[in-house]
Design brief:
Blueprint: E1 13-16, E2 23-26, H1 28-35, H2 47-50, H3 56-67, H4 73-81, H5 86-94, E3 118-120, E4 124-126, E5 131-133, E6 138-139, E7 143-144, E8 151-156, E9 159-164, E10 168-170
Antiparallel strand pairs: 1-2, 3-6, 3-10, 4-5, 7-8, 8-9
């Protein structure tokens, strides 16, 4: 037998897909990712095939793993083109944390809310825009990235950019 996600021939571990009682046989790497935090690694390229599986349980876990990789452009693109039947999508989303469970905190641990003002605590090169956002720059009326507690969005020099929360502190 092989892993339901990556097809690796390895010692397999059962993984239950909440809230239903379906289980998948997973290799240790996929089981660890499904059980905890998923970090960007070449191993997860297997999700390109898993999301298109004919097995609903495999699609559900592939969807959840892709959602856990919000900073990976390839994962975001794959989620945009993937199609899950409505009942399969509902199952996949039912076992995921709600956006309200995500709490954005600045570099000092202060809770950030949409509309807050922050100050950059480090010079940040802005990829694709050709400028550096300087330390001390105020960013007003921020937006929160709903599924990623380490990212906010705001306007700097007229451009809307994504900023990591570890590089900002809340103003006043």
């Amino acid at each position: 037998m092989s892993c339901a996600i990556c097809s690796a021939e390895a010692e397999l571990l059962d993984f239950a897909l909440a809230p239903r009682s379906d289980t998948l046989a997973l290799c240790p790497t996929c089981h660890a990712g499904a059980s905890g935090a998923v970090e960007e690694a070449p191993h997860w390229q297997c999700l390109h095939e898993a999301i298109w599986s004919t097995d609903a349980a495999t699609q559900v876990l592939a969807y959840r793993l892709l959602q856990a990789l919000p900073e990976s452009p390839w994962a975001r693109e794959l989620l945009e083109i993937a199609y899950l039947e409505p009942e399969t999508l509902a199952w996949a989303e039912a076992g995921m944390p709600l956006p309200s469970d995500v709490v954005h905190r600045d570099s000092n641990g202060a809770v950030l809310s949409a509309g807050d003002a922050v100050v950059l605590i480090k010079d940040l090169p802005v990829k694709g825009a050709g400028f550096t956002a300087k330390r001390g720059t105020a960013v007003r009326n921020i937006s929160l990235v709903q599924d990623n507690d380490s990212q906010i969005e705001g306007r700097v020099e007229g451009q809307r950019i994504v900023i990591l929360t570890k590089f900002v502190k809340k103003s006043g």
